[in-house]
Specification:
The protein has 7 helices and no strands. The protein is mainly alpha-helical and about 170 residues long. It is flat and about 70 Å long.
Length: about 170
């Protein structure tokens, strides 16, 4: 329900912005002035001004593209199975390839990895990038390297003072 409210709110904001653009165009303001006042691009102002002159409509046009053949029920089933697999296994997640095979098993249809990623994004999952840490990482040697690095290269390195953080900033 919250998502529906957010979508409606976003659409109303877009509509109001477009109406304001047309109001200012009718007041004989230039596209550049309107863009500056509203904080939008000049091309956006020009586009909606021209669109309104031609069609007298500020609504989005229907978008092209073939809708997915995965029904909402199938997507919910897949999400449920992924959730249960994630809880059972000790893995952090699953690959697009694994999900692709699951979808093929459930529906009998094969999807590209890119489309599988779109489906995963649609059901609220996010892509993570693993950060590898070596098992034998020695914190003392890391600190020693940092200290030596600071001593040897302080003359040759430029920093932005406001962005330079010290250890005391984290304590």
């Amino acid at each position: 329900m919250l998502l529906l409210r957010e979508v409606i709110s976003a659409n109303l904001a877009k509509q109001k912005e477009r109406e304001l653009i047309i109001k200012l165009v009718n007041e004989r303001k230039s596209c550049r002035d309107i863009a500056g006042l509203l904080g939008v691009s000049k091309s956006k102002v020009s586009f909606w001004s021209a669109r309104y002159r031609k069609t007298k409509n500020l609504a989005d046009l229907p978008r092209s593209g073939k809708p997915t053949k995965l029904t909402k029920n199938k997507i919910a089933e897949i999400k449920e199975e992924l959730s249960s697999k994630a809880l059972k296994s000790q893995k952090a997640g699953f690959s697009s390839k694994e999900v692709s095979l699951l979808i093929e098993k459930k529906t009998g249809k094969k999807y590209t990895l890119r489309h599988v990623q779109r489906v995963l994004h649609k059901i609220g999952l996010s892509l993570i990038t693993p950060r590898v840490h070596h098992a034998r990482k020695d914190p003392k040697k890391i600190e020693q390297f940092r200290d030596e690095f600071k001593k040897n290269f302080s003359r040759n390195m430029w920093i932005i003072p406001s962005l330079h953080l010290t250890k005391s900033d984290f304590d």
